[in-house]
Amino acid sequence: MIQLMFLLFQPKIDYSDRYGGKVHRFLCSSSGVSKLRKYLGLAAYMSIVAGTVFLVYCAFWLPDFRLWCKMGDFNQKGKSPDSFLLMREKERSAYDRLMHYILHPEAPCQTMEVLGGKRGRNKKFDGDKVICLEPGPGLNEDCIVYSFGIANEWSFDESIHEMFGCQVFSFDPSMGIGDHRHGDGIMFYNMGVGEFDGKITVSGQTWNMRTFDSILKHLGHWNKTIDVLKLDIEGAEYLVLEDILEKRLLNHVNHLCIEIHLPDNPYWTWVLRLLRRIEVEAGLRHFSTRNNTQMPPMRVPGFYARYEQHFFEMAWYRH
After folding, report:
1. How many CA atoms lie within 13 A of 286 on its CB side?
2. How many CA atoms lie within 13 A of 256 on its CB side?
3. Residue 125 clears pLDDT 80, i.e. is over it
4. Where does the record place the Methyltransferase domain (predicted)?
5. Alpha-carbon distance 185 to 166, whole Å?
6. Cα 136 from chain centroid (whole Å)
7. What percentage of the chain reaches a pLDDT higher than 70?
8. pLDDT at residue 63, rounded to an integer
9. Beta partners for residue 115, in sequence order
10. What is the rounded distance in angstroms from the CA atom of residue 206 to the CA atom of residue 173?
11. Do 256 and 250 touch, CB atoms closer than 8 A?
12. Residue (of 311, 250, 240, 316) closest to 282 by Cα position
């Protein structure tokens, strides 16, 4: 009875403060819920707009931003465009000229010899190189071949030795094996060609690097003709080629075979000028270009939604 009377006459307690007072009443009311939904909808809408703007930026302006970031490296080589936008348009137009040069060799070749190659994962050939026997210089009786970039794929080296009896000198610092004789007529060296003499560290491996002229002197070929120079060095061909051209060493090379990897920056004017120097300064003629079908088309740096082949097998012979 006493407990019942206590409950009946107990004073009412206001719990509003305990639950946030007006804030609690606002949230629990129908108008508060509608306003909360309105704010959440507005926040979601703004998020969608911001995300769309970001995607548009990445699609249209990110290539230009990357180009801007790479201008520092480019300027170190003495290439200083008047303005960023001028350089952007200049390089985009130069890309079309570069692709025309790559895909349209002008020198004729009546007798073309394909050497080496094997089927890759997509059942298409890779690793094969071509030389021009006619009207090119052909191969000397005691022909000398320099093959840079093996990656345990010896088909070209073995083929040119078996067919023409050439002495082949093979180079690759990435295979983890020492200098040795790979069968008759093929000598392997655990070194790579570069723009300096020294050592570099790549993926935890220490590579021995030498310039092309240093290798020629080391092997006693300084005053001899190199019948075939093969460069398959995974993107390093531009710096090596520039060093060889500066030292006028291509004047003693009769065939040049390069696997070209278009760079990941849009300096197409520089690449085009470098490739043309092979003809202008060394007297070699561009006679063959073939797509490297092992790699799919890739996005062209500096362009929006433009995908094209980026790997080519190119060849020149001395006229």
Report:
1. 20
2. 26
3. no
4. 99-261
5. 7
6. 31
7. 76
8. 52
9. 129
10. 8
11. yes
12. 250
